[in-house]
C-alpha cells in the first residue's frame, strides 16, 4: 500500500501523505516514497507546482519512533524540497509535530486551517530539533523558536503565521490557497525556478555549513539514555522520569 498518493489538477501535482493510522509519521518508507514523488514531479514538464498535504487529522507527527529514517535521509528530503526547481506548497488541515515542522519550513509556501496545531515536542522525549533547524532557523522568528523549541508548548495557526512558519491561515485553507495556486499556474516555469533559487540561497548556505554537524547531533541524541527513556515514556503514555 502506498504511503504517498499522487493526483494532478491543472498542472499542480498533489502529493498526499497517506498513513493516517500512524499519524503520517516520517518512517524510512514514507520518506523514501515522498522523495521519489518529488523527484518525478520535479522532472515532469507538465507540473508547474507541487502541493504537499495529508489524510487524517495530522499532517505529520514527526519521526516514526519505531522505524525512523536515518538523519541524513531526512536532511536529503528537506534539501530536495528546497532545491526542487518548482514551488512546493504545504496544505495543512490538522496537527503538525516535531519533524513535520521541518517539512513545512522547507516548503516555499505553507497554508493551514485555523484548526491546525503545532509543537516542537523533541525536548519532551529527550532529543532536540536538530536536522529540522536547517530550514527553520533561516526562515522563522528566532524569539518564537526559542520559546517553542525549549518548552515543547503547543501553538495555533495564527501564531505559526506570525512567526513565519506559515505563509497564511484561514478557516477554509483551500479558499486561501486558490489565488496562490492560480498565480503559480500563470507564472513562467523558468522564471519560477530562478526566483525560487533567489529565495532559497541563504537556506541552502545553512545546509552547506551545518548539515553534517546537526546530523551527527541528531544521531547522538537519539541513541542517548534520555532519549530511550523519553521514547519509552511516550509509547507508554506516561511522563518521562525527569518530569517534575
UniProtKB/TrEMBL annotation:
Coiled coil: none
InterPro entries per record: ClpP/crotonase-like_dom_sf, Enoyl-CoA_hydra/iso, Enoyl-CoA_hydra_C, Enoyl-CoA_Hydratase/Isomerase
Family indicated by similarity: Belongs to the enoyl-CoA hydratase/isomerase family.
Name recorded for this polypeptide: Enoyl-CoA hydratase family protein
Amino acid at each position: 500500500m502506498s504511503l504517498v498518493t499522487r493526483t494532478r489538477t491543472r498542472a499542480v501535482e498533489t502529493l498526499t501523505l497517506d498513513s493516517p493510522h500512524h499519524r503520517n509519521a516520517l518512517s524510512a518508507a514514507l520518506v523514501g516514497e515522498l522523495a521519489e514523488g518529488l523527484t518525478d514531479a520535479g522532472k515532469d514538464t507538465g507540473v508547474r507546482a507541487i502541493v504537499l498535504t495529508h489524510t487524517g487529522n495530522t499532517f505529520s507527527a514527526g519521526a516514526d519512533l519505531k522505524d525512523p529514517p536515518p538523519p541524513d535521509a531526512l536532511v536529503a528530503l528537506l534539501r530536495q524540497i528546497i532545491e526542487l526547481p518548482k514551488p512546493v506548497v504545504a496544505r495543512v488541515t490538522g496537527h503538525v509535530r516535531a519533524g513535520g515542522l521541518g517539512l513545512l519550513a522547507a516548503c516555499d509556501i505553507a497554508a493551514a486551517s485555523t484548526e491546525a496545531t503545532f509543537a516542537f515536542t523533541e525536548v519532551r522525549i529527550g532529543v532536540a530539533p536538530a536536522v529540522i533547524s536547517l530550514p527553520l532557523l533561516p526562515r522563522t522568528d528566532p524569539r518564537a523558536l526559542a520559546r517553542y523549541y525549549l518548552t515543547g508548548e503547543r501553538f495555533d495557526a495564527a501564531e505559526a503565521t506570525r512567526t513565519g512558519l506559515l505563509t497564511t491561515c484561514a478557516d477554509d485553507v483551500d479558499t486561501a490557497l486558490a489565488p496562490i495556486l492560480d498565480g503559480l499556474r500563470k507564472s513562467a516555469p523558468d522564471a519560477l525556478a530562478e526566483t525560487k533559487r533567489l529565495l532559497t540561497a541563504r537556506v541552502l548556505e545553512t545546509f552547506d555549513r551545518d548539515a553534517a554537524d546537526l546530523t551527527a547531533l541528531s544521531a547522538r541524541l537519539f541513541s542517548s539514555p534520555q532519549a530511550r527513556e523519553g521514547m519509552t515514556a511516550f509509547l507508554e503514555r506516561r511522563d518521562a522520569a525527569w518530569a517534575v
